[in-house]
Amino acid sequence: MASLRELQRSFAAALRDPGVACAVLPPANLSVYRNNTRATFRQALEQTFPVVRRRVGDEFFRQLCARYRERHPSRSGDLHWVGRDFATFLDEHLAGGDYAWLADLARLEWARNECSVAAELPALGPDTLSGFESADLEHVVFGFQPSMRLHAFSYPIFSVWQANQVENAPPVDQSLGSECGMVHLHLEYAEVRQLEPRLFSYLYALSGGTSLGEAMSKAELDEGALTQALAFIFSEGLVTTAAVGPRR
After folding, report:
1. 3-class DSSP state of 133
2. Where do the domains of the chain lie?
3. I need a surface site. Which of 146, 164, 237, 239 has the fewest CB within 10 A?
4. Pairing mode, if any, of strands 140-144 and 179-186?
5. How far is CA 111 from each of CA 60, 104, 149, 227, rounded to the nearest angstrom?
6. Mapped to the 3 state alphabet, what secondary structure does 203-243 carry?
7. Which distant-in-sequence residues (6+ apart) come within 8 Å of 200 by Cβ?
């Protein structure tokens, strides 16, 4: 007699592949479950990647979902995570074509999906810096919100995402070139922000554990730009810890 685990595996395999016999249900009954799992899988991807769907159209997106499910079937009871490998799948599936940039668009949308369930920790304010000795300020290292995701793309992905918050948006001019920015949870909303390149470089360096002074040098900020960058970082509630790091 088959064990419960064996029966579960048989049922799961038959749901994904019509050619596999199921030890639990007859084919006529199983088709209902197949249709439901296919539809809910696609709906989860539609909710996670709405802009990708808008750019490629419903029919092509359905085809992508079907091929993706063949390669990356859901391995969790939580459908929130079924799109984890979608950007990588698009990298491979669209490589060398005119729509290869859609993989980066999927990365941006997946970042929103990830950060939407991340913890939002109490944020520090700019007055935090007043607690350090002036000689220590350049050696201060920040810790950031767990939800923060930084991305730099070769295509105008942030502009595409912003333009496609409505249906039937016109295409974005690809000649706009590379863009960079961040995604983070702000007041329980997954916010997407395009950033000026030097601000992005500064934030990227800080997020890797670089001190305030060293990050300022890496991003080539003058004092005025540094003041604006710190004001932005604190106003967005990104900083959760601040401590003097090791001197190098």
Report:
1. coil
2. 1-100, 118-248
3. 146
4. unpaired
5. 23, 11, 7, 28
6. HHHHHCCCCHHHHHHHCCCCHHHHHHHHHHHHHCCCEEEEE
7. 150, 152, 180, 181, 182
**Cα–Cα dist 243/231, whole Å:** 18
Q: In this structure, what DSSP letter does residue 176 have? A: G
| Cα–Cα distances in angstroms (integers) from residue 45 to residues 41, 61, 224, in the given order | 7, 9, 43
Strand partners, 194: 181
CA-CA distance, 31 to 85, in Å (whole number)?
A: 27
For residue 103, CA distances in Å to 61, 64, 108, 172 come to 13, 12, 9, 16
